[in-house]
Specification:
two-stranded antiparallel ribbon
Length: 174
């Protein structure tokens, strides 16, 4: 055999061995998802493309990333009281929507604070955008992240029953 042919066979053997080991390890660790065959003149080699798919983030993950630490549990309580976590929830009068039951005035205020039209009424149905608006609103109007103030600001026309319901849910979370 010619030296070049021996090298090609050796390279192909090593490449195949690496693919097999990688495949086994990938299946063990769940990291290998696709395989792509590339051919080179005189040598067939297998290259394994690796990627890790991002796990789907939960509502709690988004709250942890967006909402200030001191307000995270009260935000969860508000979501529970307002919509039970239903992104498509709409108030009986149709004026409030989404997980936090955000109204048009809330959206306008967040846009004013951003000095630009960033949010639309449709964004109330997007849990991430609702959380962003909640954080913007609270950070501006409640910079010390006081829990009672957070409840009041979120629903200033609600009575003491509403505050009590939110705090009861808060205590089960916290």
């Amino acid at each position: 055999m010619k030296d070049q042919t021996k090298r090609n066979l050796a390279n192909a053997g090593i490449g195949t061995l690496c693919v097999i080991v990688g495949f086994i390890l990938g299946n063990i660790f769940g990291q290998i998802r696709t395989e792509k065959i590339l051919t080179h003149p005189g040598v067939q080699d297998t290259v394994v493309e690796e990627f890790q798919s991002e796990p789907e983030l939960t509502l709690d993950d988004h709250i942890a990333m967006i909402v200030p630490d001191k307000l995270q549990n009260i935000c969860k309580a508000l979501i529970w009281v307002e919509s039970r976590g239903n992104t498509n929830a709409v108030s009986t009068d149709g004026n409030y929507a989404g997980i936090l039951q955000i109204g048009s005035i809330y959206v306008k205020e967040c846009n004013r604070l951003q000095k630009d039209v960033v949010y639309t009424l449709e964004d109330r149905y997007d849990s991430v955008k609702s959380l962003e608006m909640f954080a913007i609103f609270q950070n501006h109007h409640n910079p010390h992240h006081d829990l009672d103030r957070a409840i009041y600001l979120h629903n200033p026309t609600a009575g003491p029953e509403y505050r009590g319901e939110v705090l009861r849910k808060f205590k089960t979370i916290y």
